């Protein structure tokens, strides 16, 4: 059938909506949240909470606005008992992203604002999601290890709270600072696949929890957020820096993709990788475990040289999280506990300026088939 518009595989470079939230400059390698360069946010010492406020409201919070917002997150981390019971009922070897996806959906059933679609109610829902996603991830991790979930401590930042809820101990100053930066760097990225998925769901005027459930399912895939876990699996499989180059050469010869490299939009260095490379090195040195960073550098140089591909956000986050002692299967859920900020910003924007998202497919199937009743076939 004649196409009415031009088909672009994977919607490459197709502009699907306007947005004020985030600008990805693929040519120059810049990432801007609401007009602020991520380098300035990171180097200026912004908190993750401050960046969430910025993404949602389009302006930096005043001191008192930030205090109120940080408190709203910190005091709402506890999960409803029913959701904790759900986590206790899940198979212990379940995939952590599948558990997160199902638990987010479950959580929506208990939200006190369920059914209220006002802007204020949706901001309250988004605040609870930001507060409670880390509790889902850390509680399930403890439950699967036969441990009890930890009561959240409202005096802790989002970055510190993640480690406290996971291990019952506050992280070092370095780990809190580096993790806060990682949360900022992963917060938003324009119309990436999971955010698009959230916007498609919100575009039908479905609710916030449905949109976020769609997004979590989309983030899980190894071509998107799931790549950070695959990077670590690759490093562990190679295990020896002296074997890294040959391993990558063989993988490329077999037409395999090297996880943590390449990007749909960036044609130069992913600006997030610039920070994560540095933090991975520091985290490795502090943990007395420089092997994974060194191996990552060898791989990066070889992939750049042989394929011209740059490391993306998922490459150095893997060795950084590993050096912080975080289990590999939590890397993608950690991506989600940051990206919930961007997903919800986009859902709010979609509601503000909604039109159903419904593209076309170019029909390439059969035509003019003649129906023959079943008894005559
Ligand atoms: C948070 C994020 O989502 S960041 C991305 C995380 N994903 C990954 O790291 C997975 C590995 N990377 C990839 O699969 C891709 O680069 C993607 C999915 C990120 C982008 O994909 P696309 O824009 O569709 O590019 P596509 O897959 O068509 O690649 C274009 C060419 O580069 C090659 N290429 C792209 N990425 C890689 C890679 N990581 N390793 C090897 N070759 C690659 C492809 O094989 C293809 O080569 P060809 O033209 O000779 O067939
Ligand atoms: O923008 C993309 O396609 C993927 C990405 O880097 C992200 O979601 O952070």
UniProtKB/TrEMBL annotation:
Pfam families: Citrate_synt (PF00285). Gene3D superfamilies: Citrate Synthase, domain 1, Cytochrome P450-Terp, domain 2. Coiled coil: none annotated. It comes from the Bacteria. It catalyses: oxaloacetate + acetyl-CoA + H2O = citrate + CoA + H(+). The keyword Nucleus does not apply. Pathway: Carbohydrate metabolism; tricarboxylic acid cycle. Keywords: Transferase, Tricarboxylic acid cycle. Belongs to the citrate synthase family. This is Citrate synthase. The lineage of its organism: Bacteria, Bacillati, Bacillota, Bacilli, Bacillales.
């Amino acid at each position: 059938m004649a196409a009415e518009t031009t088909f672009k595989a994977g919607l490459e470079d197709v502009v699907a909506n306007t947005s004020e939230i985030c600008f990805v400059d693929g040519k120059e390698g810049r990432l801007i949240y609401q007009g602020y360069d991520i380098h300035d946010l990171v180097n200026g010492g912004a908190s993750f909470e401050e960046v969430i406020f910025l993404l949602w409201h389009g302006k930096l919070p005043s001191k008192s606005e930030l205090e109120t917002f940080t408190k709203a997150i910190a005091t709402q981390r506890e999960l409803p008992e029913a959701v904790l019971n759900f986590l206790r009922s899940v198979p212990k070897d379940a995939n952590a992203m599948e558990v997160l996806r199902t638990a987010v959906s479950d959580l929506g059933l208990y939200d006190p604002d369920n059914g209220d679609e006002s802007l204020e109610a949706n901001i309250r829902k988004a605040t609870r999601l930001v507060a409670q996603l880390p509790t889902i991830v850390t509680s399930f991790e403890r439950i699967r290890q036969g441990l009890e979930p930890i009561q959240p401590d409202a005096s802790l930042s989002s970055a510190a709270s993640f480690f406290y809820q996971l291990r019952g101990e506050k992280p070092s100053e370095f780990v809190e600072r580096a993790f806060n930066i990682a949360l900022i760097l992963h917060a938003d990225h324009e119309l990436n696949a999971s955010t698009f998925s959230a916007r498609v769901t919100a575009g039908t005027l479905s609710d916030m929890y449905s949109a976020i459930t769609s997004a979590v399912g989309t983030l899980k895939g190894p071509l998107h957020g799931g790549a950070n876990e695959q990077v670590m699996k690759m490093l562990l499989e190679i295990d020896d820096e002296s074997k890294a180059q040959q391993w990558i050469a063989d993988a490329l010869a077999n037409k395999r993709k090297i996880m943590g490299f390449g990007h749909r939009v960036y044609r130069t260095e992913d600006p997030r990788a610039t920070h994560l490379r540095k933090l991975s090195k520091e985290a490795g040195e502090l943990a007395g475990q420089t092997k994974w960073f060194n191996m990552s550098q060898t791989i990066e140089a070889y992939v750049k040289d042989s394929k011209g591909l740059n490391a993306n956000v998922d490459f150095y986050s893997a060795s950084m999280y590993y050096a912080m002692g975080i289990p590999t299967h939590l890397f993608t859920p950690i991506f989600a506990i940051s990206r919930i900020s961007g997903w919800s910003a986009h859902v709010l924007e979609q509601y503000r300026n909604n039109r159903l998202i419904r593209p076309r497919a170019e029909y390439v199937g059969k035509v003019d088939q003649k129906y023959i009743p079943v008894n005559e076939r």
